[in-house]
């Protein structure tokens, strides 16, 4: 994996952050392919180049660490990519009078060192944490803060500041990042023809103009965005319930992206790439043919049941109503397990979530058990293997989540 470039004081050089620049023409096609790769390469499929060569839209990038060299088959060791959803209304389809820009959604994609499993960690926007000193977008430095709401970091110092903040919180090196807008969510859901979600009860939220019936619902366009943003219509009306609801959508999204119906349809692939290209900013080290090739090699063997969504553990804040404080003990256990690469089990789904059968089922990253048909040949005299399957570790009870292979349903608002 590419190393971060730091200055003499050991900090990531401020000149590498916050500065937006237009990509050079010869890299545009690589960035277009990369955008698609970030979204669909978990399938391990080979995407036809003709589906994106015609896209001429250039992509904004944010300066980041050094790029991956061309010719590498995969990224080395574990891989961490921060994915941030902006709530900026500027130039977007949604225009409700709100101004400014907050990181409405903050996700960390972690690929294990053996490249056999992936974990997506969702961080509550209401989490109160320490913010490190960040390079200011216009030059200079934003001073460190002892406690600030996580969703303010994007407005304070842009994507680089969010990356540095999550690095400090998790202890992981995060060299790659992407920022997507509201219109990107709308465009991608439209490109897929919608994402199917299960609703155990209706979801009604006047705050986001959302009114969905009970049953299987196909979400696309503005309705998909509303479903991802609602908090008053699900669980206890809080931020953690909203994350659990988002994980239902994301799990279904991954299942659909990995389906043959999506990957064999060049029109869907083209529209998906176009929606991403027009509504995303990437750290510049991701925007190269070398990174694209290495990313494809890194994630191509990850199966659905090895892609897990978890929520960063938290408690109600001791003195700020409606805010959250980190559960540091549970978080340390989670990231120690991720660093070790060992299989783990999520013991529960989130607030307001149930499996289709109505009973929450533990989620595990362990390889699925295989069964073998009875043999009709003579018994083998080979000594049976004594290899022991890896031990699966159960995550602390304060960490909820699910596998992308597990179909779950939203229960709507469960606490009034």
Your description of this structure?
This protein is of the alpha+beta class. The chain has one domain (14-362, 395-410): 3-Layer(aba) Sandwich (Aminopeptidase). It has helices spanning 28-40, 153-170, 182-191, 221-229, 239-257, 260-263, 266-278, 289-299, 328-340; strands at residues 20-22, 60-62, 79-86, 103-111, 118-123, 128-131, 134-135, 141-142, 145-149, 176-180, 195-199, 203-205, 210-212, 215-219, 280-283, 307-311, 314-316, 324-326, 344-346, 353-355, 363-364, 393-394, 401-403, 408-410. Strands 1-2-15-10-3-4-5-16-23 form a nine-stranded mixed sheet, with helices on both faces. The protein has a four-stranded mixed sheet with strand order 14-11-24-20. Strand 17 and strand 18 (324-326) form a beta hairpin. The chain is globular. The protein starts with 19 loop residues before the first strand and ends in a 6-residue tail after the last strand. Mean pLDDT is 75; it is low at 1-59, 359-364 and 366-380.
């Amino acid at each position: 994996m590419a190393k971060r470039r730091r200055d003499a004081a050991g900090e990531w050089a401020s000149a590498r952050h916050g500065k937006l620049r237009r990509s050079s023409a010869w890299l545009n096609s690589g960035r277009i392919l990369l955008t698609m790769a970030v979204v669909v390469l978990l399938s391990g499929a080979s995407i036809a180049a003709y589906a994106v060569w015609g896209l001429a839209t250039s992509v904004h990038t944010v300066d980041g660490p050094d790029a991956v060299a061309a010719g590498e088959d995969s990224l080395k060791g574990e891989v961490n990519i921060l994915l941030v959803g902006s709530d900026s209304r500027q130039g977007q389809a949604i225009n409700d009078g709100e101004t400014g820009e907050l990181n409405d959604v903050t996700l960390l994609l972690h690929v294990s060192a053996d490249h056999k499993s992936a974990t997506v960690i969702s961080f509550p926007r209401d989490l109160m944490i320490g913010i490190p000193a960040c390079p200011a977008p216009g030059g200079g430095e934003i001073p460190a803060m002892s406690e600030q709401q996580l969703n303010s970091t994007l407005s304070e110092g842009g994507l680089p500041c969010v990356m540095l903040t999550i690095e400090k919180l998790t202890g992981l090196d995060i060299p790659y990042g992407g920022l997507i807008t509201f219109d990107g969510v709308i465009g991608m859901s439209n490109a897929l023809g919608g994402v199917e979600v299960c609703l155990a009860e209706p979801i009604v939220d006047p705050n986001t103009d959302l009114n969905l019936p009970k049953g299987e619902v196909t979400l696309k366009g503005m309705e998909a965005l509303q479903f991802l943003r609602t908090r008053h219509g699900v669980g206890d009306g809080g931020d953690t319930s909203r994350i659990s609801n988002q994980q239902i959508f994301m799990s279904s999204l991954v299942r659909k992206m990995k389906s043959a119906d999506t990957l064999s349809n060049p029109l869907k692939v083209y529209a998906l790439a176009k929606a991403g290209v027009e509504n995303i900013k990437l750290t510049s080290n991701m925007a190269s043919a070398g990174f694209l090739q290495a990313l494809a090699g890194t994630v191509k063997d990850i199966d659905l049941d090895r892609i897990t969504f978890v929520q960063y553990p938290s408690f109600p804040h001791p003195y700020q109503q409606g805010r959250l404080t980190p559960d540091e003990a549970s978080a340390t256990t989670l990231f120690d397990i991720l660093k070790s690469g060992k299989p783990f089990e999520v013991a529960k789904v989130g607030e307001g979530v149930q499996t289709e059968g109505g009973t929450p089922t533990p989620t595990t990253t362990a390889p699925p058990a295989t069964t073998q048909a009875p043999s009709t040949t003579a018994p083998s005299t080979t000594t049976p293997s004594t290899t022991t399957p890896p031990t699966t570790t159960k995550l602390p009870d304060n960490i909820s989540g699910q596998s992308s292979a597990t179909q779950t349903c939203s229960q709507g608002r469960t606490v009034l």
